[in-house]
């Protein structure tokens, strides 16, 4: 397979994303103005609550079996390595370049979460159709490719809607706090050490200082109790936040999809030409098909505002590109080669290729959904997505050539 063929295969899904994003940008521009920010926000809620869970559930329930989960056990480990290394590198970027504080989670999210869904569903099967493919007979290759890609999308969604969701949620909370603090600035003549009293009374005069110093030892027990109370409140808030993140609609859909996929009698009720409840599966599959177009339209709409308002430093964008398309692919080659030599992987070059390509993908589209959901960094996300997806075509074709050369 030549470099030009790989370029065509790699560019097709990227161009689809960019074309749909252009439609969203036009609909939100002054020429059309029918896709305003309120409309994008409402559509995003539907994507989060309905379309994305339907896509995750339908793909998992159809493709996953208990045998595949056992034999492909290294795939979730591989995806986890991508997320861990990407997060660490993103953290180093924010510590070195110091962007706005509320953008730290956005940067770490774009460095760690790759588009493990729709791009792979297009790229991996398309590789099987090319002449000179090292992956065997076309029909068998495409069947395996769809199974690998669907499982990758499902596992990736679980990581995205737990780890990445947590990062974006924290950024959203921080952004709201910073915005609230900006709206209520401390006056220049106010002493920051002065204790604020709810009823607006002035602080006590110096005549009472001695009395207060006598009372302090008597209140030490109460202060200790307050510290313990604050600790338990923080612990309770943290556990509550984790609980809410785990019960996000996409994560619930992933759990249900795994359960139905690995239990044969449940799967026979919903999936297959003779399944009695096949209409449920078909309906959810149709709903899931709307996920990618809606996400991309929202991304394009946000892009118009992002290009006008974003203050992202060029060095920050270049650093993200360097991590996504140079460091992570090199790490991926080392990880997959080491796992193969240790006997962790089945002897299928297409499976090895998929694991390597997982390190080379542009950021997950769902990051834009989360940015819209938590009202943080939508403009910056759109600009990051524009440059990373423009660079994805040459990067994917280059690394695909390298991976095929290694596996041939």
Automatic annotation (TrEMBL):
In this chain, composition skew of type Basic and acidic residues spans: 195-207
Read off the Pfam families from this record: Mem_trans
- Looking at the UniProt record for this protein, which Gene Ontology cellular component terms does it annotate, in alphabetical order? endoplasmic reticulum membrane
The protein in question is named Uncharacterized protein
Stated membrane topology is: Multi-pass membrane protein
Give the matching PANTHER family: PROTEIN PIN-LIKES 7, PTHR31651
UniProt entry tagged with the keyword Transport: yes
Q: Which family does it belong to?
A: Belongs to the auxin efflux carrier (TC 2.A.69.2) family.
Record organism: Dioscorea zingiberensis
> What biological function has been recorded for the protein in this entry?
Involved in cellular auxin homeostasis by regulating auxin metabolism. Regulates intracellular auxin accumulation at the endoplasmic reticulum and thus auxin availability for nuclear auxin signaling.
Segments spanning the bilayer are 14-34, 46-66, 72-94, 106-127, 147-168, 246-266, 286-304, 316-338, 350-371, 383-406
Which intervals of the chain are annotated as region Disordered? Answer: 185-207
Cellular localisation: Endoplasmic reticulum membrane
Which UniProt keyword terms apply here? Auxin signaling pathway, Membrane, Transmembrane, Transmembrane helix, Transport
Question: Which BP terms does GO give this entry?
Answer: auxin-activated signaling pathway; endoplasmic reticulum to cytosol auxin transport
Record keywords: Transmembrane helix included?
A: yes
Source organism, top-level taxon: Eukaryota
């Amino acid at each position: 397979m030549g470099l030009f063929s790989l370029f065509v295969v790699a560019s097709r899904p990227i161009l689809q994303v960019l074309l749909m994003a252009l439609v969203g940008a036009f609909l939100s521009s002054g020429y059309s103005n029918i896709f305003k920010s309120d409309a994008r926000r409402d559509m995003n809620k539907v994507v989060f609550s309905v379309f994305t869970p339907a896509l995750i559930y339908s793909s998992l329930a159809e493709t996953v079996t208990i045998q595949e989960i056992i034999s492909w056990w290294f795939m979730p480990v591989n995806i986890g390595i991508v997320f861990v290394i990407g997060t660490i590198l993103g953290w180093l970027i924010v510590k070195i370049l110091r962007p706005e504080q509320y953008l730290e989670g956005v940067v770490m999210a774009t460095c760690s979460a790759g588009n493990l869904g729709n791009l792979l569903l297009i790229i991996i099967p398309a590789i099987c159709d090319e002449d000179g493919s090292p992956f065997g007979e076309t029909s068998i290759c495409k069947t395996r490719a769809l199974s690998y890609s669907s499982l990758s999308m499902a596992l990736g969604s679980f990581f995205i809607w737990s780890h990445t969701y947590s990062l974006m949620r924290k950024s959203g909370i921080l952004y709201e706090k910073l915005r609230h603090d900006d709206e209520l600035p401390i006056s220049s003549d106010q002493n920051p050490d002065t204790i604020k009293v709810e009823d607006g009374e002035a602080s006590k005069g110096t005549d009472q200082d001695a009395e207060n110093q006598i009372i302090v030892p008597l209140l030490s027990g109460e202060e200790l109790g307050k510290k313990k109370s604050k600790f338990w409140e923080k612990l309770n808030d943290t556990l509550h936040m984790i609980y809410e993140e785990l019960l996000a609609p996409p994560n619930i859909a992933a759990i249900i999809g795994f359960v139905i996929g690995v239990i044969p009698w449940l799967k026979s009720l919903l999936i297959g030409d003779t399944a009695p409840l096949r209409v449920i599966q078909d309906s959810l599959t149709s709903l899931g098909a709307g996920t990618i177009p809606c996400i991309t339209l929202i991304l394009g709409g946000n892009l118009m505002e992002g290009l006008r308002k974003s203050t992202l430093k060029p060095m920050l964008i270049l650093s993200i590109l360097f991590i996504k398309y140079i460091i992570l692919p090199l790490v991926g080659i080392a990880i997959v080669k080491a796992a193969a030599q240790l006997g962790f992987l089945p002897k299928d070059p297409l499976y090895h290729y998929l694991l390597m390509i997982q390190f080379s993908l542009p950021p997950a589209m769902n990051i834009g959904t989360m940015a819209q959901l938590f009202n943080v960094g939508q403009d910056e996300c759109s600009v990051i997505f524009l440059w990373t997806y423009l660079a994805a075509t040459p990067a994917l074709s280059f690394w695909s050539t390298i991976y095929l050369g290694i596996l041939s």
